[in-house]
Specification:
Number of strands: 4
Cofactor: heme
Subcellular location: Periplasm
Distance between the termini: 64 Å
Binding site for heme c 1: 80, 83-84
Keywords: Heme, Iron, Metal-binding, Oxidoreductase, Periplasm, Peroxidase, Signal
Organism: Hyunsoonleella aquatilis
Structural class: mainly alpha
Order of helices and strands: HHHEEHHHHHHHHEHEHHH
Length: 354
């Protein structure tokens, strides 16, 4: 009378334990909060992490795999990393990137780092996309870039031998859709944090700058000389950009309207996002259209190459003189300082490589 119920209870307990510990059980993903550098936590606001897409070990690993996988393109020939290479601080060393059909775009690929601190949550040179998750939607269906469709991508991932299990581990479901794909990629991209340049170490008291680098920093901060800090910040802004949109005197007339295309406001024509000055050692060519092959050409533009147009930014104060008119010594020192913002550890970090 007693033994039969006891056996049933033991069987139920055993089955329950096997169900919880068995291979079919779905475990929760492991939280993996961003490791925020001291210079960031001391000087700027916390990063932007969506409530519905927290950082997890499994989500980051999945996003990294997707980032380097050409399966996202129509013919399995091109991955995100083809236009955003780790060794180039996640940009392209070519002026314009080739798409799957060999067609080139008309803008230089933006480098990818410190993206979690885009407080306005707009992306691309003209700010045409809101949020890092939505940004990842664009290249897949772009007719010049990956030229695929999300239906096609979802089907390929769903039929893949590994991806359904990886999505289940990261998001608790093996049913793959575009939203989860872009969430995973965004998680990986948010881990791309660059904060260990020579200048960072100088600010932390870990190294010294050369006299040339120090003078270059002074040129950068001096309104009468370089006057660079208005758009790119100071030592109190470790992002080295204001992340705003400016017409920096590249053209008298515009073939690319930039922000003006997005807003429809003629006053925004010719305005593009100020890129970060970090990692310039690795991110040539420069400007939204990659027109400048090296840092010297960039410095010469601001020194004596400014062009007036109807939307020229008021911060280009010396437009009438064509630029700030740097001496050759100040140009060389400014270049030395700018290169001190490059982070060799970042481009060689195995956590970011394929």
């Amino acid at each position: 009378m007693i033994r039969k119920p006891l056996i049933l209870i033991l069987l139920c307990i055993t089955f329950s334990c096997e169900e919880e510990s068995g291979s079919t059980a779905v475990s929760k993903p492991t939280p993996s909060p961003l490791q925020i550098p001291k210079l960031f936590s001391d000087n700027i606001l916390n990063p932007v992490i969506p409530i519905d897409n927290p950082q997890t070990v499994e989500g980051i690993a999945l996003g990294k795999k997707l980032f380097f996988d050409p399966i996202l393109s129509v013919d399995n020939s091109q991955s995100c990393a083809d236009c955003h290479a780790p060794e180039n601080a996640f940009t392209d060393s070519d002026r314009f990137s080739d798409g799957v059909d060999g067609i080139r775009g008309n803008r230089n690929s933006m480098p990818l780092f410190n993206l979690a601190w885009h407080y306005d949550e707009t992306f691309f040179w003209d700010g045409n996309t809101f949020s890092l998750e939505h940004q990842a939607f664009v290249p897949v269906t772009d007719p010049i870039e990956m030229k695929s469709s999300w239906v096609n991508v979802e089907q390929k991932l769903q039929q893949h031998s590994e991806y359904p299990k990886l999505f289940e581990q990261a998001f608790g479901t093996s049913t793959i859709d575009s939203t989860l794909v872009t969430k995973a990629i965004a998680q990986f991209e948010r881990t791309l944090i660059s904060a260990n340049s020579k200048f960072d170490k100088f600010l932390l008291g870990e190294t010294e700058l050369t006299p040339e680098e120090l003078n270059g920093f002074n040129v950068f901060m001096d309104e009468a000389r370089g006057d660079c800090f208005h758009c790119h910040g100071s030592e109190k802004n470790p992002l080295w950009t204001d992340n705003l949109f400016h017409n920096n005197g590249l053209d008298e007339t515009f073939t690319d309207l930039g922000l003006g295309v997005v807003t429809g406001n003629p006053a925004d024509n010719g305005k593009f996002r100020s890129p970060s000055l970090r990692n310039l050692k690795f991110t040539a060519p420069y400007m939204h259209d990659g027109r400048f092959a090296n840092i010297d050409e960039v410095i010469n533009h601001y020194s004596e190459g400014l062009k007036r147009s109807s939307t020229i930014d008021p911060l280009m104060k010396k437009i009438d003189q064509g630029g700030v008119g740097l001496t050759e010594k100040d140009k060389a020192d400014l270049k030395a300082f700018l290169l001190s913002l490059s982070d060799d550890e970042f481009v060689n970090n195995s956590a970011f490589g394929e």
